Amino acid sequence: MTHTDENSDPVLDEVLSSVLRRNPGEPEFHQAVREVLESLGRVIAKHPRYANNALIERICEPERQIIFRVPWVNDKNQVEINRGFRVQFNSALGPYKGGIRFHPSVNLGIIKFLGFEQIFKNALTGMPIGGGKGGSDFDPRGRSDAEIMRFCQSFMLELHRHLGEYTDVPAGDIGVGGREIGYMFGQYKRLTNRYEAGVLTGKGLVYGGSLARKEATGFGAVYFVDRMLTSRGDSIEGKTAVVSGSGNVAIYTIEKLQSFGGKIIACSDSNGYIVDEDGIDLALVKEIKEVRRQRISEYARLKGGRSHYVEGGSIWNVPCQIAMPSATQNELTGKDAKTLIENGVIAVGEGANMPSTPEAVRLFQQAGVLFAPGKAANAGGVATSALEMQQNASRDSWSFEQTEARLAEIMRNIHDRCATTADEYGAPGDYVLGANIAGFVRVAEAMDAMGVI
Ligand code: NDP
Predict the structure, then answer these.
(1) Which residue among 98, 128, 228, 303 is the one 20 to 30 A from 136 at the CA level?
(2) Which secondary structure element, helix H or strand E, spans residue 278, and what is its range?
């Protein structure tokens, strides 16, 4: 391991070697495990019992991994085959909970990295939810509505037997939004002949969804960044910000940053990024992305003025004070981090899962940039999913204000838990260490109490 001596421990080195050996060809999973293990040396020094009974090794091994064939018929009447995944990683704290991703890059290692992160994220929320993740290598881009529906129905035809409101509760992620959740919920209901509202979250408002769920991940990430800044006597007000992506997380990150008085000057998709020196017109981004489902390049064409589009390239070359990577894993490299630091960035909040490479994280921390890791900063989405489950269980629906107030409180608590844990373990201001340790301790305590499971 490349960590400092304080974070080192022979047990952790052994666990990491075993994970690398037993999960070949899964670099993202290795990266996620390494990052958590690098934080745990101080915990083992303080609580040696966590090193017993292969507890940490068990946490790194999914409880169940499901891989299945998804055959479906496209609009040309041709049969296509995709691969479906669900990794039920850890249920010590509650039913497996975590999103479903549809993207051509999906493979078992990606789903395992996301499921592993999810365990600690869910633990940090303080809510009774375990960790899981799923998805498919299906590419939804350019597909008709009817194709999306047939794919979702075939995907659920297999997945439904592994789900249940007390077993495993998926939600959306990249490529899976309200439309896809609707198709999957409809198929689940039909297959099981049960109106089990709590089996999926991110549902439409007319059939059991929660107000503020759609906004929750982006809003929550901004609440976290706001709390980091205010704890240093600073604020978002008047700061320039760059948000990568233009999907669910990015859009609502931009919305909340704007409401806190930030000026967002760039966002992106996988083809390129737009810069608007007058500040992003969010209504136009929503129209392009949520309604027309077009590329972000359309923005510069429709808006004109002081906006322009850059094909390819790195959005992190755009100077800003607040950077919120909200697209995908490893999208912000060491080189990008150097550029951001040279350009005066003061805070980075990860809306996406593991968007910064380990080198980028190290550089931010060395430069004293406030850095909020995804498993803490983007936990507002899953926390509000848990609030959706609560509303489903009690046949209730809360107002937007009530739900958002709960979200804000949860994000405040997550921030403070990370900060006080970092203090307690001798690393003040290190939110990565704080998040990893606080999440780990909760899961480890529950697993320890349950015997060898
Ligand atoms: P969406 O599918 O709504 O949006 C994803 C955005 O990121 C799109 O703009 C997409 O561009 C871009 N993107 C995706 N893959 C790549 C890539 N390989 N390179 C560059 N850009 C890419 O997904 P979400 O907004 O839901 O998810 C974004 C991130 O946030 C993911 O890391 C996800 O795991 C994480 N997250 C999401 C939560 C949620 O509640 N939705 C909760 C917690 C974390 P394009 O359209 O061109 O593909």
Answers:
(1) 128
(2) none
In a domain, 417, yes or no: no
Long-range contacts of 75-80 (CB under 8 A, 24+ apart): 75/144, 75/146, 75/147
What is the pLDDT, as a whole number, of residue 149? 98
Grouping H, G, I as helix, E, B as strand and the rest as coil, residue 276 is strand
Cα separation, 215 vs 4, in Å, equals 38
Residues 251, 375, 263: CA angle, nearest 5 degrees: 35
Q: What is the pLDDT of residue 5?
A: 59
240 within 8 A of 368, measured Cβ to Cβ: no
Q: Which residue has the tokens 């995944």?
A: 85
**Same-domain status, 356 and 252:** yes
For strand 79-90 and strand 131-136, is the pairing parallel, antiparallel, or unpaired?
antiparallel
3-class state of residue 265 by DSSP: strand
Do 165 and 241 fall within a single domain?
A: no
**Residue among 97, 203, 249, 255 to mutate when testing ligand 1 (max atoms within 8 A of CB):** 249
Q: Residue of the nearest CA to atom 7 in ligand 1?
A: 327
Mutational test site, ligand 1, from 269, 293, 309, 410, max ligand atoms within 8 Å of CB: 269
Question: Does a structural domain hold residue 382?
Answer: no
* Same domain? 225 vs 276: yes
Q: How far is CA 336 from CA 317, 345, 346, 357, in A?
A: 7, 11, 14, 10
Pairing of strands 322-324, 307-311: unpaired
**Taking Cα atoms as reference points, which of 111, 110, 117 lies closest to residue 379?**
117
The token pair that represents 11 in the structure block: 């047990």
b/e code 225-235 from CB counts within 10 Å (16+ = b): bbbbbeeeeee
Tell me the CA end-to-end span of the chain in Å, nearest whole number.
27
| Catalytic residue (choose from 121, 133, 263, 289) | 133
Looking at the domain assignment, is residue 183 inside a domain?
yes
Q: What is the pLDDT of residue 4?
A: 52
CB atoms within 10 A of CB 402: 13
- DSSP state, 142? T
pLDDT at 3: 46
Which residue range is the domain that position 347 belongs to?
A: 214-368
The residue ranges of the chain whose pLDDT is under 50 are 1-3
Q: In degrees rounded to 5, what are phi and psi of residue 349?
A: -125, 120
Among 201, 168, 161, residue whose Cα is nearest residue 182: 201
**Predicted TM-score of the model (pTM):** 0.97
- Determine whether the shortest distance from the Cβ of 210 to ligand 1 is under 6 A: no
Burial 42-61 (b: 16+ CB within 10 A, else e): bbbeeeeebbeeebbebbbe
